[in-house]
Amino acid sequence: MRALAVLAMVVACACTWAERILLIPLDSRPASGQFVASIARMASVDVQSPPYEALGRFTSPGNPERILKWLEGQNFKDVSAVIISTDMVAYGGLIASRTDDVTLEQALGRLKRLAEIRRKAPRTKFYCFSAIMRLAPTATKATAAWRINLARYAELRDMVHRTGSQATLQQMQNLLAKIPANEVQRYEAVRQRDVALQQELIRMLVRKECDFLLFGQDDAKQYGPHFGETRLLKAFAESKKVTSRTFFGEGIDQQANILLSRALLLKAGWKPKLRVVYSDEAGRSVIAPYESKPVEQSLQDQIAASGAQVADQGEDYDYSLYLNTPNPGEEPMKNFINALTSEIDQGFPVAVADINIGKDGTADPELFKVLTEEDRMHKLLAYAGWNTAGNTMGTTIPAANVYLLARRQNRNPLQREVAQQEFLLHRFVNDYCYHKFTRPRAYQMIDASPFASREETYGEAFAAVDRFVRTDLSEYLQDYWKNEFQGRKFFAGSQQYQLAELRDLRVFLPWPRAYEVRLEFRIIAEPVSRY
Fold this sequence. Notes:
Elements (H helix, E strand, L loop, with lengths): L1 H12 L5 E6 L5 H12 L3 E4 L15 H9 L6 E7 H5 L13 H17 L4 E8 L14 H17 L2 H11 L4 H26 L5 E6 L7 H15 L6 E5 L4 H14 L4 E6 L16 H12 L2 E2 L8 E6 L5 H16 L4 E5 L10 H7 L10 E3 L4 H20 L4 H36 L10 H27 L3 E4 L2 E14 L9 E10 L4
Parallel strand pairs: 1-2, 1-3, 3-4, 4-5, 5-6, 7-8, 7-9, 9-10, 10-11
Antiparallel strand pairs: 12-13, 13-14
Helix pairs in contact: 2-10, 2-15, 3-5, 5-8, 6-7, 8-9, 10-11, 10-14, 11-14, 14-15, 15-16
């Protein structure tokens, strides 16, 4: 009975909240909301969002009316911050922001309601983020025939504008003939609408209807209409004298993580300092896939927006960020791994962001192998290696910041340590195992079915893929849990605990495709007897 009582106490500790933050996520994907809530748990912060079904699913948009009503009904007295995807409020989510289903007038009307809510909660910080539209339209069956050509056309048009190349002009004109004219017009009109709305967001900053505005560049390249749009928005923010409260960064899926970190650090009045170690110094100037800035500049944007800062040469720092840049050289990578493993093995605070991501979306196998050796996996502050450089850096950095803040403030030590281990295990299984092993086999199933496509799959074909993903990824999770985490001991305050049990496992595909997966579980810890 005593053992059961102790275990019950441990489970209860994992549900103690120090404060509440409201989140209106970008959409219903795990990266948009689940990651934020998981990071926040390290600091005993309860992140609450509108009902899941109100957030939409893939091409079915979220319900801005229902979401705004949910926000209007909140008691803001115990809410320290509100993090808001304006794309969800204005259009119904990221995918909807790339279509013309919502007029500018409708979108502006929804922002007006958001401003009214803000005025009723003047002491609560409102952090907003908005996507600068990506180069390519959403990958669906309906756009399959022309979306790549349209993206390339938009890229070449900017290249012609900036370089004057006649050869590029001819390429652009040849591509234009392959794209339905109405789709080009819709694409351009949607981009214009989105920028007009983003100018209104800047005006909201001026009127103090939001406190901080972060623009995230969705999937991009070195040329494209996003460059002109960004220049226009930066100039507009400068003309309104709000540049200190306006940030521009690469990627969009991770921006709620960034704003969570910023909100908590700003409230605490603490700015963690980090030292950056690159796997290859030449990687600083590389432009990573789907981004428009060199790695070093993209990284600096993520750090600054998160509320942290890079330590000066020779200055003390709170942790080291080891950044594995795209395609590092053999010798620099060897030195990088030696330095990384030395720091981890000595117990220094280390976070790893792996942006050497393969075309299949998989993090670096060599680096991953090293992290699974010598009990290193569970010793990290944070780890990520998914999708794009911005997504990865904007996951690792906030997780490290928030964990260290929770330690600094001594917030519920048991919950902090367990939540951190949960997030580490989640990242290793989700970021690596899913994309390296499970997703390729899921794609094989999809490719073999006459009723399925990688863009979107429904009915029994989807159900079969979903069942396979559930079984396959669950096995990887159990393996890494048993081999790397289960039984590991740690201190929370003066009491020693061990990671004892994995509970409430749930795996499913959140959207009608195999591109991403939702992985849910809880880790239960139990005290280690002193006798």
